[in-house]
Amino acid sequence: MKLLSWNIQWGRGMDGRVDLQRIVETICRLDHFDIICLQEVAVNFPELPGSQGENQLEILLSLLQGYTAVYSPATDIPDGHGKRSQFGNMILSRLPIGQVWRHLLPWNAEPETPSMQRTLIEVVIFTASGPVRVLTTHLEYYSRRQREIQIEAIRRLHVEAHSMAGRIFESAEKNGPFKAHQRPSEAILCGDMNFPVSSDERLQLLAPFENDVPAFYDTRTLLYPDVPHTPTVGIHPVDFVDQPECFDYIFITEGLKGHLKSFQTDSETQASDHQPVWIELS
């Protein structure tokens, strides 16, 4: 199974041009992915630089044939013309999808600090080795405190999922929305975390859990423990980091460590202000 994560900046490249065809061509050039996790996907948001207010969800689906898409807008506001403007994350999968959760992450008030609503998508993917949860998110950029609160919320959701993993799934007495569906403990968490490798937030996310809840592991570190992370922002000049940093990660839980085969970063593309990262699991 090959999984890619990429903050596409609503398709806006380093040249300032929004080009979703270029995004898809870059993805297809890198590999043939079973799961694609994208952050910063916009629908009807002409205020974004370079955007014409296009429905990027529809465009991406038309260009990526054979995928099922799950979209979770974090921002969902009126556009002033009777429609909605949306901005959030999406997961596309060639593999069968089970239950889906769209979690709005905490958004605590910080009147003097810019921030926006953030979301976490959680989907159950059925693989040849069994079901696994795939989660993607985009944490707050401007506020470390917001990121810490959001990470704690993600960890609580992971504990909740683990506690639900042992439920009985086929019960004739409970049907419809009460019917229990699989929510396995093992998970892949990816996205633009907006923290560098040396940050306390990364340590917070990777901290062990109590009891038998499986912890998260950084896939890059698992494969290359003595090699620094490849930067995913600032390789090409941007105004939001002073030096190249790694902000984009793919984490996996304990039971998936033995399946991890590779981790890669595309440092060349300028189709976004972030670089795509991807893994392969056997």
TrEMBL record:
Organism of this sequence: Nitrosomonas marina
GO molecular function terms listed in the Swiss-Prot or TrEMBL record: endonuclease activity; exonuclease activity
Entry keyword annotation includes Hydrolase: yes
Keywords per UniProt: Endonuclease, Exonuclease, Hydrolase, Nuclease
GO biological process, one term: GPI anchor biosynthetic process
Gene Ontology cellular-component terms listed: membrane
Entry-linked Pfam families: Exo_endo_phos (PF03372)
Lineage: Bacteria, Pseudomonadati, Pseudomonadota, Betaproteobacteria, Nitrosomonadales
Name the UniProt record assigns to this protein: Metal-dependent hydrolase, endonuclease/exonuclease/phosphatase family
Top-level taxonomic group: Bacteria
InterPro entries per the UniProt record, alphabetical: Endo/exonu/phosph_ase_sf, Endo/exonuclease/phosphatase, GPI-anchor_lipid_remodeler
Stretches assigned to the Endonuclease/exonuclease/phosphatase domain: 4-259
